[in-house]
């Protein structure tokens, strides 16, 4: 699906030519597959009519997923930071329990 001017992808049975380098081909095709799957899911639900509305809802759902994932990563990064601080405190506490060269 590569052409000189970009990469051709299909969304809702319509082909789009995307300006992208060949190194982005696999990721772009995977993104199009993901979008098409989400569109099929919405269509199967039966409550959405019209391609424009279907695309808007899919975009909102995917944006929501992205924001949730970003929030989860921030939470994970904060937890890792707290664990690092706790590890440093524990290490410092353990060092106070180690025998010194003068004790015996």
User: What percent of residues adopt helix (DSSP H or I)?
Assistant: 55-70%
Strand-residue proportion = 5-15%
CATH architecture group name: 2-Layer Sandwich
- The assembly state of the depicted protein chains is single chain
> Overall pLDDT, averaged?
90
In DSSP terms, counting alpha (H) and pi (I) runs of 4 or more, how many helices? 2
Q: Give the overall shape.
A: elongated
CATH topology: Double Stranded RNA Binding Domain
Low-pLDDT parts are none
Placed side by side, the strands forming the largest sheet appear as 1-2-3
Largest sheet: 3 strands, antiparallel
The CATH first-level class comes to Alpha Beta
Q: What's the layout of helices and strands?
A:
Layout: E1 2-3, E2 6-11, E3 14-18, H1 25-45, H2 51-97
Antiparallel strand pairs: 1-2, 2-3
């Amino acid at each position: 699906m590569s052409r000189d001017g970009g990469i051709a992808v299909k969304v809702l049975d319509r082909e789009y030519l995307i300006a992208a380098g060949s190194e982005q081909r696999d990721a772009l095709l995977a993104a199009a597959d993901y979008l098409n799957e989400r569109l099929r899911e919405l269509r199967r639900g039966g409550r959405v009519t019209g391609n424009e509305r279907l695309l808007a809802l899919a975009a909102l759902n995917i944006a929501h997923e992205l924001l949730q994932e970003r929030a989860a990563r921030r939470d994970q990064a904060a937890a890792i930071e707290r664990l690092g601080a706790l590890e440093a405190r524990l290490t410092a506490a353990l060092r106070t329990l180690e025998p010194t060269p003068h004790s015996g």
